[in-house]
User: Which sequence fits this backbone?
DNA sequence: TAAATAGTGTCTGTAAGACAGTATAAA
DNA sequence: TTTATACTGTCTTACAGACACTATTTA
């Protein structure tokens, strides 16, 4: 390799041997709601560095797949979920590329936000292949409240916070929140998702009024479990909430 | 390398030789406003593939820098701008990793949104080192309107569209638009930026009423050029626009 | 003056926030 | 009945959208 080059001919003369190997990873911020609490899937690390610390699940991107393909594959491997079912939402979050974020070598990681559908009470089983034994669900807000020493491995606390902020923000003006529920759901279920993610109570009446225009009435009603009127089942549409639903101010 | 491995010991046994080289690039979507028109910086390709087509500027990420470091460096190299001046806004956009997005080899690219400050009439000079000779400003909306054959190289049309959407969306609830203006600016200048990005006229009176709470009055006034009252100079704050400024519906 | 721009005032309709009231079911 | 939940209605206040009006400058 002979001297500095301009950007234009840089790529032409690219020679893999001239560059240090860059490992491209895909990390996952997997959310699911149960019992009015937002949970995140984490794995307990068994090896150095950050041994015994919690970390986001993830893995390397293979030669013939995109980062999102890899995220999808890793998710299937660690949860044993059938991704043919449409109840999984995946979107790219951001890429973390600080040179020393992994002390061993250069790992650039593209993080993905994953939303799994639940009925609001049962979390998807995280029992699948190998590593899944270490995987478990943890309350997201408590993890982020971060008791000292309870921080996640690597820069994963930052990634988790970014993921939560992305989700919370998008819920203001889209119907992403429905991705955390089955295909048909009640307004109360949806409201519970909002309360779990925003960590803040919502007035039921006004919530109904604001949400209904973005939803499609299935005509069906629930058979209620514990006292109360049967609720209408809705389906989501791709309509945006306009103007947005205001998130209650935190103080 | 012996058989499939679990995610946990994957990294431990990572061996660069086992993986095809991944080139990590940083592409730039550089915006600036002049004459009520949003412009984007593009370079004309001199070599195959996509010879003579327009493309986003960009370059490879070095071994000891993050993707954003690389974006900043590339920007300086191609514009000759003094990045010590605070009038440059950079934020990560997304990472594009489709295996065949570059026909020659695997290039994963992290795109960045860059906003340059102008007074609204003069575009920053794109004369710097080598490749800058090919660089120029192009009207963003016209490029995206995309006369057939006028498409950008690689997946850069998609990246540009994502960049514009990010900017246009963020302008609804933040003061990012001020990053396309000098440190002190008038409400008319700011309104012009909104009109350029949203490609849609805004009512001056209502714009003033909605924006003022997010701005800080400098107490100074402009010396007007061609007839009209002197305008107040404002500075931006980091306050969010709440509720958001509605973008005029496109139909 | 006239023309151009900056900025304020006013009116109207919509909708958010608060909350009462009604309906439907289970215990 | 009581209790719990689902939903609708009402009232007040805030504000967006439309636009008229005044003020301040240059030509």
Assistant:
């Amino acid at each position: 390799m002979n001297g500095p080059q301009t950007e234009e001919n840089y790529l032409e003369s690219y020679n893999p041997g001239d560059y240090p190997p860059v490992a491209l990873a895909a990390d996952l911020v997997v959310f699911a709601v149960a019992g009015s609490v937002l949970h995140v899937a984490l794995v307990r690390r068994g090896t150095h560095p950050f041994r015994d610390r919690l970390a986001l699940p993830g893995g390397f991107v293979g030669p013939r797949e995109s980062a999102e393909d890899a995220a999808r594959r890793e998710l299937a491997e660690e949860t044993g979920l059938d991704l043919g079912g449409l109840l999984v939402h995946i979107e790219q979050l951001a890429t973390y590329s600080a040179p020393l974020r992994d002390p061993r070598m250069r790992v650039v990681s593209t993080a993905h936000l994953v939303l799994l559908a639940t009925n609001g009470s049962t979390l998807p089983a995280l029992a699948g292949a190998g590593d899944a034994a270490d995987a478990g669900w943890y309350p997201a807000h408590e993890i982020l409240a971060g008791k000292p020493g309870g921080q996640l491995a690597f820069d994963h606390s930052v990634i988790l916070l970014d993921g939560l902020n992305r989700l919370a923000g998008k819920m203001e003006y889209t119907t992403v929140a429905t991705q955390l529920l089955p295909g048909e759901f009640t307004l109360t279920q949806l409201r519970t998702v909002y309360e779990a993610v925003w960590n803040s109570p919502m007035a039921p009446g006004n919530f109904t009024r604001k949400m209904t225009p973005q939803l499609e009435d299935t005509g069906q009603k629930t058979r209620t479990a514990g006292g109360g009127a049967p609720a209408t089942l809705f389906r989501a549409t791709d309509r945006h909430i306009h103007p947005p639903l205001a998130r209650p101010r935190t103080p």
User: Anything to note?
Assistant: Strands of chain B lie at 23-34, 37-44, 54-55, 58-60, 88-96, 107-116, 135-139, 215-221, 232-236. Residues 23-170 of chain B form a domain with the Nucleoside Triphosphate Pyrophosphohydrolase fold (CATH 3.90.79.10). Chain B touches chain A through 54 residues (CB under 8 Å).
